[in-house]
């Protein structure tokens, strides 16, 4: 083999080595680029995973809070129903007391009317054949009427106290019903806000 062929062979070998070296550098650069891309993708995946976990936690908490608010709302509805029932019962008691008061007033009026009739008969002289005996009877009637009148006045006072108490109870119940309804409105508003928040978080999760 002559010297020129050897030189050409060595030149060819050198060119081939340089070409392979250049290819090696290209591959190395591509590998480094892929490694960086892999790290970036891994970082994005980790960030997405954390975002997903946070979103799931937030959704779980929101759902738990929503259920809690719904339970509180149901309890408020039950409390209002009980208060309304008590209100109706108290109204019925109050009506009965007023009816009883009216009945006692009529009884008192009848007693006064009867006493007036007896006194008028005395004045007319059309009833008694034995004045002393009838006078004693009349006095007993008047005494009994006075006692009954005192009892009626006492009963009237007691009825007035009961009516005042029932009216106070009715007012308290009405205030509780109003507070309960206001609480339910607040709870419903909070539930609506939570539902809107869950919707937004779901949309953000789907977009990511």
UniProtKB/TrEMBL annotation:
Q: Which UniProt keywords apply?
A: Coiled coil
Which residues fall in a coiled-coil region? 10-37, 66-176
Q: What is this protein called?
A: DgyrCDS5649
């Amino acid at each position: 083999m002559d010297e020129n062929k050897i030189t050409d062979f060595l030149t060819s070998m050198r060119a081939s080595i340089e070409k392979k070296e250049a290819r090696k550098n290209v591959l190395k650069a591509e590998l480094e680029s892929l490694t960086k891309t892999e790290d970036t993708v891994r970082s994005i995946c980790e960030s997405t995973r954390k975002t997903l976990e946070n979103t799931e936690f937030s959704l779980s908490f929101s759902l738990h809070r929503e259920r809690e608010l719904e339970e509180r709302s149901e309890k408020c509805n039950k409390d209002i129903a009980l208060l309304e029932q008590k209100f109706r019962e108290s109204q019925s008691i109050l009506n009965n007391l007023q009816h009883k008061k009216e009945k006692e007033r009529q009884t008192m009026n009848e007693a006064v009317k009867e006493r007036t009739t007896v006194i008028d008969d005395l004045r007319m002289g059309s009833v008694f054949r034995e004045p002393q005996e009838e006078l004693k009877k009349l006095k007993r009637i008047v005494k009994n009427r006075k006692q009954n009148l005192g009892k009626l006045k006492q009963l009237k006072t007691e009825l007035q106290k009961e009516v005042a108490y029932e009216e106070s109870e009715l007012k308290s119940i009405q205030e509780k019903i109003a507070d309960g309804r206001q609480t339910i409105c607040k709870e419903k508003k909070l539930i609506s806000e939570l539902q809107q928040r869950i919707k937004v978080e779901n949309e953000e999760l789907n977009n990511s």
